[in-house]
Amino acid sequence: MSLKDKYAIVGVGLTKFGKIPGISTMSFTLQAIKLAIEDAGLTRDDVDGLLVISPVMMGEQHGWAGRVAALLEVSTTFTATMDLGGATPIGMVQTAAMAIEAGMCTVVVCAFGNQNSPAGVPFVMPNLQFTLPYGDVGAIPFQAHIAQRHMHDYGLTSRQLGEIAVTFRKHACLNPEAQTYHKGPITIEDHQNSPMIADPLRLYDCCLNTDGGGAVVVTSAERARELRHRPVYIMGMGQSHSAEVMPPWPAKTEHRGGLKAAEMAFRMAGITQKDIDVAQLYDGFTILVITELENFGFCGKGEGGSFVEGGRLGLGGELPSNTAGGLLSEGHLMGMGHVVEAVRQLRGECGQRQVKDAETCFVNGYGGAPHEYPPTLSYSTLILRR
Amino acid sequence: MTIEKPLPVPTEDTAPYWEACRKHELRMQRCKQCGHFRFPPSVVCPKCTSVEAAWEKLSGKGEIYTFIIVHRTYHPAFNPDIPYNVAIVKLNEGPLLHTNIVDCNNVDLYIGMPIEVVFEDVSNQISLPKFQPLRV
User: CA B20 to CA B115: how far, in whole Å?
Assistant: First the structure.
């Protein structure tokens, strides 16, 4: 039995976010949960399911879900701490729907928090024995390797990547909550002049660093219709997990780059890419938007570069995307920002950046362990409708 | 003061790889059932799930699959090397691995460049496989 339209997102919340020292990962998480529950018009007594993202800084994570629940005195019959990196927020929403369907709980809060410099949590460099000794450190080199290969195979240009950065910044300038709201727009020339980080990726190809939190509330469609906001229904969802770039290749190559994750979501929703009014694409790096557009079927393989030209991803374009500014210009909310913005678009709450009459939104998450060996990635997708 | 570069710490699974590197040999597990060369080291073949494997010596030759030039690093030990390259090379036997290309200017690197392994002794215990343009 398909879960299509049976579950809905009924509450969303983002804490203040940006470079905010002095607020812990736990505090951001709790604040976000409070905001999302209030937004839904519920109280914590209504909540019986809790899903949380495993804190990024290892050392904090043990028993995380249970501690979050305890500090809020939320009485749960279902909790889990999930670890899919930036694919987790959507993974949590999916898990919430499945858990309710299974009868484990009825109202699930999915929450995320992140303090990049947590006090009292020692930073331990992992033993990345096949990359670190060569000076290949972190998530940027991985995507830079992919960008170089894409440029070689398909002729992608840095200016095309710049189009994405410029477009999403423009959107952030219409979002007063965005980290770059006050920085103003950027041009392609600004992108081209931004410092090289890992050639071919420049500073403006890379997302922001963000401290903050976010949460959403998931419940059944029937319950949703009694609540405060117009429900945002889950029409379709999917996941796929794969090793990428490096072998061992997954046995099933359609898992690569989230192909299957998108295919599943569209099949479940019973609509096609052409029916999507607005998209929230996981944009840790500009190059990632290119490969996602291709692998999710919004354009053909190798056509991502030309697809993003001419304002296609901008407001008023064919596929307005990352309308709040995305990870590149709103803030790195690990993909929770994408889910929240999707809901706000479908509720029609987005003011100047509102996509007119938006009825459907495609959202995806991306994460995993691209810096581990072999580099492994998780993609998660949602198709939402009002 | 120079900051020491991080060295690999061999684990139960990877020790034979690093032990071979120390002898300036590039060795990887080859599946005894299906012949697949696998990397990173693992107890089970990702192609056929056989657990029977032998550590075989590779030719050490291959080509650049992709590469980057690092201008900003997140580990201070590499700051003096900026800008430096990191390549992913595809070995003739199939596996890909991260490495640095030595004896070659960064501007001369290209995808498809034929390369061969050289070993850099970075400590008494560890030799890192790096690659240089193939000398014919």
Answer: 20
Sequence-ordered strand ranges (E) for B15-104: 27-31, 37-38, 53-57, 61-70, 84-91, 96-99
pLDDT digit string, tens, across residues A356-367: 999 999 999 999
The C-alpha atoms of residue B69 and residue B78 are separated, in whole angstroms, by 12
d(CA A259, CA A264): 9
Minimal CA separation from B90 to chain A, in Å? 9
- Put simply, whether A123 touches B (Cβ < 8 Å) is no
pLDDT in tens, A11-64: 999 999 999 999 999 999 999 999 999 999 999 999 999 999 998 876 777 889
Closest to A97 in 3D by CA, of A226, A214, A292, A239: A239
Containing domain of residue A216, as a range? 7-118+209-225
Is residue A69 included in any domain, yes or no? Answer: yes
Q: What tens digit of pLDDT does each residue of A336-347 get?
A: 999 999 999 999
Mutate to test the interface with A, among B70, B97, B125 (most CBs of A within 10 A): B70
Residue A40 lies in a domain: yes
Residue A106 belongs to a domain with what CATH number?
Answer: 3.40.47.10
To test the contact with chain A by mutation, choose from B31, B68, B126, B127 the residue with the greatest count of A C-beta atoms within 10 A, namely B68
What SS3 state is found at A140? helix
Provide the residue type at A149 as one letter.
Answer: R
CA–CA separation, A147 vs A156, rounded Å? 8
Which of A53, A59, A44 lies closest to A11, judged by CA?
A44
In this complex, the residue of A131, A135, A374 whose CB is nearest that of residue B73 is A135
Residue A18 lies in a domain: yes
Cβ distance B10 to A129 less than 8 Å, yes or no, reads: yes
ipTM: 0.97
* Residue A102 sits at the chain B interface (C-beta within 8 Å): no
Contact yes or no for B14 and A199 at CB 8 A: no
Give the CA dihedral B73, B78, B79, B83, nearest 10 degrees: -70
By residue range, what is the domain housing residue B65?
A: 15-133
The residue ranges of chain A whose pLDDT is under 50 are: 249-251
- Which pTM does this prediction carry? 0.96
What lies within 8 Å, CB to CB, of B112 at 6+ separation is B63, B64
- Count: domains in chain A: 1
Per the structure, how many domains does chain B have? 1
